[in-house]
Amino acid sequence: MSLENRVAEALDKRGEADSDQALMLQYMQGDMSAFESLYQKHKGGLYRYFVRQIGDLQLAEDLYQDTWGRVIKAAASYEPSAKFTTWLYRIAHNLLIDHVRAVKPVDHFSEVFTEEQDADSFLPSDEQAPQTQFIAWTKAQLLKHCISLLPTVQKEALLLNMEAGFTAGTIAEVVGTSLEATKSRIRYANQSLKTCVMNKWQEVENER
Question: Residues in domain RNA polymerase sigma-70 region (predicted)?
Fold first, then answer.
């Protein structure tokens, strides 16, 4: 099937995945606006994926840019056999793993969400009462801290599920593991988070 026919076929289908595939195929034909559309659509989630995994804003930016660079390099050989988001996050996952293996053991990341500007983005609106704002902000910080304590594989699976909205099956494809292992990682991550946040909140209550 010619590239033009593949674009037409993808455009004829419905759904976000097919739209992404069509845009990628159009980019392969030299349509830079198609790449811009993909970039604008996925840039926020992809950047947050790196920030929440490693916590270093500059490093997150570097890996983020490297991911898009690899997308550009791989465009000529792209085959829409899987969702574009699965393919994109697989590239991101591999870059992250390569970095972690190069600098530290795979199960140890630095603390995340220590930057003041990142914490500010989680503050509630001014319409809420100061006390409500403080409670919501404190719980957000506890949650972020507890996420940072999760084993790397659990943290990645949880964030891909919560933030990217990926199913366990899609996450399994991204990280290259079995469906059951992915479900277990998400389940254990949720259980650990619930316990951690409850314990940390109790500590805060006891100090008040």
Answer: 38-102
Summarize the chain as % helix, strand, coil (round to 5). 75, 0, 25
* Least confident piece of the model among 84-88, 110-114, 181-185, 186-190: 110-114
Is residue 142 a contact partner of residue 200, using CB atoms and an 8 Å limit? yes
Mean pLDDT in the chain? 77
The domain 113-208 is placed in CATH, from the list 3.40.50.300, 1.10.730.10, 1.10.10.10, 2.60.40.10, at: 1.10.10.10
DSSP per-residue codes, 9-22: HHHHS-SHHHHHHH
State the fold for domain 1-110: Rna Polymerase Sigma Factor; Chain: A (1.10.1740)
Q: Which of 7, 40, 3 is nearest to 22 (CA)?
A: 7
Q: Does the pLDDT of residue 26 top 80, yes or no? A: yes
Side-chain half-sphere of 68: how many Cα atoms within 13 Å?
19
